[in-house]
Amino acid sequence: MSDPFVVVGGDAAGMSAASKARREAPDREIVVFEKGEWVSYGACGLPYYVKGEIQSLEALVSVTPEEFREERDIDLRTGHEVVAIDTDARTVTAERESGTVTQSYGELLIATGAEAVVPSIDGTDREGVYTLGSMSDGKELREYVARARDGEGFQQPDRGPACRYLEDCTGPVGVVGGGYIGIEMAEALAANGFEVNLFQRGDRVLKGFSDETSEYVADHLREEAIALRLGAEVTALEGGDRVEAVATADDRVPVEMVLLGTGVRPRTALAEAAGIELGETGAIATDAYRETSAPDVYAAGDCAEATHVVTGEPTYVPLALTANRHGRAIGETVTGSPTEGGGVAGTAAVKAFEVEAARTGILDHEEARAAGFDPVSETVTAKSRAGYYPKGGNVRITLTADRDSGRVLGASLTSEYGEGAVHRSHAVVAALSEGATVADLENYDLAYAPPFNTTWDPVLVAAKVLGGHLRD
Description:
Blueprint: E1 5-8, H1 12-24, E2 30-34, H2 46-51, H3 65-70, E3 75-78, E4 81-86, E5 91-96, E6 99-104, E7 107-110, E8 114-116, E9 129-131, H4 135-149, E10 171-176, H5 180-190, E11 194-200, H6 211-223, E12 227-230, E13 234-239, E14 243-248, E15 252-254, E16 258-260, E17 264-266, H7 269-273, E18 297-299, E19 306-307, E20 314-315, H8 320-333, E21 348-352, E22 355-361, H9 365-370, E23 375-383, E24 394-402, E25 408-416, H10 421-433, H11 438-442, H12 458-471
Parallel strand pairs: 1-2, 1-7, 2-3, 7-18, 9-16, 10-11, 10-16, 11-12
Antiparallel strand pairs: 4-5, 5-6, 8-17, 13-14, 14-15, 19-20, 21-22, 22-25, 23-24, 24-25
Helix pairs in contact: 1-8
């Protein structure tokens, strides 16, 4: 441990690891290379910044570069892009404006994150086509929205019924992709007066959720005047210098801007060039302690695999909590206390206007069968609060289990915004993590008070119904 602990990447995994290592080893030299200017920021908040609910980019920053340097004594080098790793010499090479630097390491963490997927279609390089994968992306989108609202947008002549948020609609836009970013950005743009066309290649939004959740969210998007175009594979983004239309096999939709929300992929080029192994998911393969195939080289966050708690197999789930948790564990490991950091259940949540949705575990029956299970699912609708309480709504839960063992495999939940679908998913996460059966889940001692719940929480209702099915 005489050589520095070096981190490549200054966001969730990287800065969590550096901070934890500093707390555990006050005298250890810790060096972090970050190619951009921003570190330790909440990228998940970018749609709400674009929407206008969050007023400044700085509000998304958890800890500033100055605080890391001055208060935590971490040698944070922004504007440094690591371009090579030599695992034999145990060095990294970084480029900066003033030249190239080489840094030795005792232990190295690769936390290079993920990048937005740009589909292989014509026109993605036209002006007016955006992605949302970084703080700079968010800044550009916010500036575009501001220009459009000030009457400086590139407006098309036609206006549809979706222009109901502002007196003067700013024009039709396209969102490609019906996942988390696509839905969150559809809300953000609609709230700013744009006529939003949401293009989804498949036959439903939120593919990783249950069919029932997808249908419920899709219906609500339509209620909010989103022009939802399912089964619409985009073939080109047409126009001159600037995008003017989204073309599909069956249609051509005029737009003034396009947001690509077609997913992310792990940034692995640096690791690959260093001879570090990738897993079947395409992300960097690691052991339980996040160590890669190269000795003393670790990987965590959106560039690395994790272990699924249901299947025990590697999976790729690029989410913030996983990055923070695994980064923190690595910080302990490299300072002398080997720590695993735990598996993942694929737990995620999304807000779509006045609906909230959550998912966890394995829901797709084909995926469950491939993992050796015989899946069975039940969907129930139950009250979110006591029936006599003056507020409340419904929670819809699809619960999936293995027919033979009764083991809980996953759940997908929706409710009106604020009625607890997301927080109720946590009980299912606990069941997945401990390998609980549906019978076990039926007997969870969940909290009850009329303003928050019914006597039988909707999760317990779903477990009872599915348990009855399994016992028949």
